[in-house]
Amino acid sequence: MFSEVGQDARALQLLDVLLRKEPNNPLFLRKKGQLLLRSGRRAEALSALQQAVQAAHGDPHAYFEVAEALRAQGAYADAIAYYRRGLEVDPNSRHGRLALSETLFLAGQYPEAIQIADPLLKEDPNDLAAWKARADAFRALGRPNEVLYSLKAILLLEPDNGPALLEMYRLHRDSKETKEAYATLVRLLGSSAPEAQDATLHLERGDLAATLGKTEEANEAYERAASLDPMMRVEIATRRARLRLTAGRPDLALEVLDEGLKSVPAGSPTNVAALLLRAEVLSALERPGEARAAYEEVRQRDPKSPVALAGIAKSMLDEGKHAEAVEFLRAAIPQVPPQESLYLLLAEAHSGLGQNDLASDAVKKGVEALPKSVALWVRAGEIAVARQAWPDAASSFAHALALRPAGVDILLRAGFVAERMEHPNEALAFYERATEADPANKQAWTSRGLALLATGRPTDAQTSFDRALALDSDFAAAKDGKKVALQKTRDAEVQRRAREALLLEARLNRTVTKNDLFVTLHVPYELLEPVLTAIGRNVKVNLDRLTPTEIRDLENASYHLITAAVEHRPPGIERRGLTLADVAVLSPPGVHARPDRAAVRLPPRRSRGGPPSRESPADAGRRGARSQGARASPRAKDPLPARSDAARRDLQGAPHQGRRAGRFGGSCPARRSRPRGVLPRVPSPRGGGGASARRGRGRCRPGLRDRTERVGRRPCRCAGLDRGTGGAGTFRPGRDGARPSSRVSEVHRLWGNRFGRP
């Protein structure tokens, strides 16, 4: 009794009297040791406790009681030693093991505490104290998931445990698990725990409800907080006004805020946060003059408030006073630490005055002061886009992406700039990153589809547009892009089928029909007419609009085409010219890989009713090759025969050796007098022979072609050309009912006398 009322000295005197009568009473000894520990007499206390243990004759509870007394006085190391000695006597004592685990936790030995608590829970999962010891140890180790697991077990055993609910709420909140945090907080505030009467927790519940879009629950929580603590009315009014402003009702926000500000006692300063919010609400209501006055009031209390300075400048811009805003910002920026908002507002003010160069300079200064500001880099890129300075814009957006790699808006802007710089593959890479960062962004999928169209992949583009339409079926840009993708996919299919049809026509040596396309090539029914139209069209080449590179490609491809035609002598070519089938068979490798180059395909206008020739161009080529003793190449994948070595060198531009190594193969009978190794000239497209013909040497005489055919020689390379009327070098027009020849006079006009140049 004396010890309970704080009279430890009298209690010790009484214990000494009792111990004189019973010197080995363990109860008296333990009590004496506890009182000595409380008095700070540690050595005497340990001696008394040791005597109590010896007097207990191996009783484990004596060790545990001594350990508890030591633990109560903070002697954790000595307490752990006594707990272990007691457990040596009784290893199965749950009380001793649990107390040892708690003492190890207090001593900072957290893993050892868990090693003792876990076996206890395996033996009895309903041990609440063991769960608490486990949660404490894992909390100290910084493992929130294990702590949360222990708290759930505690709440199953004790649903209204306030501390456990509060800790679980904070764990969810710190992990950004808003829904779980809100549910736990509602459970806590609805319980009978003392924490349910905390007004601050009700405020936090209102904020979470507002974040989750639960307006009614937020208002209810704010009202409950105000009823618990009337001194928080201004803060609660501020939060309710913020909630209404976020919901798009600034008028209601201003009403709630003004009502809350009325509760402020007369003469008391108005809350700065409430003033700033009121100014923001007035700006949202398009009342810039009043908003500016509210910001000025805040500035009077804090002259260097960045928020107030930015608010004043923004109010000036809202009033259309761009020049005044420029002057104000130039004076305000040096007075405060670098602020992103001030540099952005200065750039906006210059842009409003049409001073894009000065706006760019303002942003550059901001970037120099704040190199890690994403907003400033993005603004620099936007100003560069307005100035059409595409390299500067690309560099600015690259810096922004380095700071925020998953920024979808930045990726879309960077892709737009790449498109303007004619880098479609780079733009496609940006758009693909945007779709990965935000798969629910319809603009990203649409932009990706357009980039795929630009890179010639209409099928993949169609898939991208489908993803955008799945997100918004009325998105006009995606609809238009899908139409273009479908059309391009169809056109590519038609071109591929037309190529196959031309090769089939060359093999059959007759005009293909719909039945041939449908049965032999398996062309879909809806593509029969487009394929026939594609192989029967009259291709026109506007030479005036071709670039120098395209003209060179045209000359090279046409030269090889005519060379192959004269080399293999398809029967009737001198009468009918070249058809699309001839082009498909005779054109050099790689030509058809570029279907956009109409210059390398010079088909004549087709007449689908003409009589077929007796022999196909491919068969004629094979026959001519066999007559010359040529050996077919095993690697040849086209229907052409293998050329002789001399002809192959001629077609590849190799140096000519000997009289029969002319560019067209063979030698012309009219030019046998020309020295060995000298390339003969061909008739000029402008009429007559070449330069040599005009001087009277090597002119092709009439009837020479018939003569060479009678003696079995290879025909003169000039045999397929005719000076014709007016000297225009064209292939001879076909007869009645045959295919008319192709117009290549424009090509010859460009060639001039280069036709026979080595």
Structural key phrases:
single chain, elongated, 38 helices, 758 residues
Quick structural gist:
It is built from 38 helices and no strands. By secondary structure, the chain is mainly alpha-helical.
Q: How many strands? A: 0
Distance between the termini: 127 Å
What would the principal axes of the Cα set say about the shape?
A: elongated
Structural class computed from helices and strand pairing = mainly alpha
Helix content: 55-70%
In terms of quaternary structure, what is this?
single chain
- pLDDT averaged residue by residue: 74
Segments where pLDDT lies below 50 for 5+ residues?
1-6, 590-758
Based on CA atoms alone, the radius of gyration comes out at 48 Å
Percent of residues in β-strands: under 5%
Task: Note down, in words, how this protein is organized.
This protein has 758 residues and is mostly helical. It is built from 38 helices and no strands. It has helices at 8-21, 26-39, 42-55, 60-72, 76-89, 94-106, 110-123, 128-141, 144-157, 162-174, 178-189, 199-211, 215-228, 233-246, 250-261, 272-284, 288-301, 306-318, 322-332, 340-352, 356-369, 374-386, 390-403, 408-420, 424-437, 442-454, 458-471, 476-508, 514-520, 528-535, 548-568, 573-576, 580-586, 617-627, 645-651, 691-694, 704-710, 745-751. Helix 7 runs antiparallel to helix 8 (128-141), helix 16 packs antiparallel against helix 17 (288-301) and helix 26 runs parallel beside helix 28 (476-508).
